[in-house]
């Protein structure tokens, strides 16, 4: 059995700048002494946790250790392999029933592969009661079952789970490596790819969207320019309302197509796709789906607002490094003139205060403060030094 080299071939080709982590996972595929039944893959957003988990699952099942070309590899990466189960959620938390179902699945023997692989994305979204359901399955696993949990950091997972998993840590990939991946995958120009990678803080998914959708990139720059040029409390409050509404609109646009498809699939499965009036039992299931979709849309809105806050943090990082004349590249070079004007006006103290305010806004929203109130408070605090 031969494993692909660490040059980005085979199933590992989507992992950017993660040579150390890939080496650990590849060794586990070929060396039984390096293999274990439970893994915890951690890394910052955009580092490729989900890609690493899928690549590892494919390599474990592949007769050639992750060739990326055989039916086994392609089915795992496409999400259709019967021996690889992936739990991902758009909800605020992972439901306990979802984990119970996974535990049941984990107890079954593989259909045709070497392993039964269970991947839990965003394992940090499990509350303690839900995690306890998972604990026993990880403590006493079936002989051919492998658990792969993904989370931003080890501290985001309860110690009882963390202590039973082998940890693999991913890092923020190099900006140029992300740009090279975008050029290779999407065929955009090297400069567009590099600008997108910088703006996205090397978050691969975000960088690809910015590079491939000019409207998204334009809206992002317009929002940042508005933050730099707003004046007074009234202007800050007005801009906060616009930015939060834009986040809601974006979340709705991303959700509408999938929500309509889910409703259609449910009605088809129930044999009710042609009914004008739904029977009570079917209405109840449709209502349950709609409530679930509402929760997921809410989660997407919060994630979109958080992305806005990350962009604003990057903006004032640029203001700060410009104010101190640091010899580093800015993340938002397309509005460099605005950044230089803000640096001259605000100086280092106000730029640092703005970064602290962004961190506070993210903490408040994580604590269930209404996004509009948190963004208003943030923008007012930024606008006040200019009064």
UniProtKB/TrEMBL annotation:
Domain of life: Bacteria
Name this polypeptide is given: DNA polymerase-3 subunit delta
GO biological process, one term: DNA-templated DNA replication
Leader sequence residues: none
NCBIfam families given in the database record: PRK07940.1
């Amino acid at each position: 059995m031969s494993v692909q080299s660490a040059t980005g071939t085979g199933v590992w080709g989507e992992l950017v700048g993660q040579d150390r982590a890939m080496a650990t996972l590849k060794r586990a595929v070929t060396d039984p002494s390096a293999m274990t039944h439970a893994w915890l893959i951690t890394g910052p957003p955009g580092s490729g946790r989900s890609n690493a988990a899928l690549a590892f699952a494919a390599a474990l099942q592949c007769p050639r250790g992750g060739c990326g070309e055989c039916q086994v590899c392609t089915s795992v990466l496409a999400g259709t392999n019967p021996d690889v189960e992936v739990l991902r959620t758009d909800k605020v938390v992972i439901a306990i029933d979802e984990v119970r179902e996974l535990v049941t699945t984990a107890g079954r023997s593989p259909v045709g592969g070497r392993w039964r692989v269970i991947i839990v994305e965003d394992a940090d979204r499990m509350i303690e009661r839900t995690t306890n359901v998972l604990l026993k399955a990880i403590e006493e696993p079936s002989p051919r079952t492998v658990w792969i949990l993904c989370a931003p950091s080890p501290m985001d997972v309860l110690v009882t789970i963390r202590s039973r998993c082998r940890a693999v840590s991913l890092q923020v990939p190099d900006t140029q490596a992300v740009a090279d991946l975008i050029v290779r995958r999407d065929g955009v120009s090297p400069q567009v790819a590099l600008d997108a990678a910088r703006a996205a803080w090397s978050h691969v998914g975000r960088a690809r969207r910015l590079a491939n959708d000019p409207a998204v990139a334009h809206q992002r720059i317009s929002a940042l320019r508005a933050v730099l040029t707003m004046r007074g409390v009234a202007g800050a409050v007005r801009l906060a309302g616009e930015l939060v509404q834009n986040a809601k609109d974006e979340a709705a646009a991303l959700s509408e197509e999938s929500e309509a498809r889910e409703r259609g699939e449910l009605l088809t499965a129930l044999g009710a796709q042609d009914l004008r009036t739904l029977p009570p039992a079917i209405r109840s299931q449709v209502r349950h789906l709609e409530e679930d979709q509402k929760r997921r849309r809410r989660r997407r809105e919060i994630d979109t607002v958080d992305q806005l806050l990350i962009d604003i943090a990057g903006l004032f990082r640029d203001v700060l490094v410009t104010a101190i004349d640091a010899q580093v590249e800015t993340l938002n070079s397309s509005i460099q003139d605005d950044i230089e004007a803000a640096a001259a006006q605000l100086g280092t103290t106000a730029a640092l205060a703005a970064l602290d305010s962004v961190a506070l806004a993210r903490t408040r929203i994580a604590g269930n403060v209404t996004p509009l109130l948190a963004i208003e408070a943030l923008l007012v605090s930024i606008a006040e030094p200019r009064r």
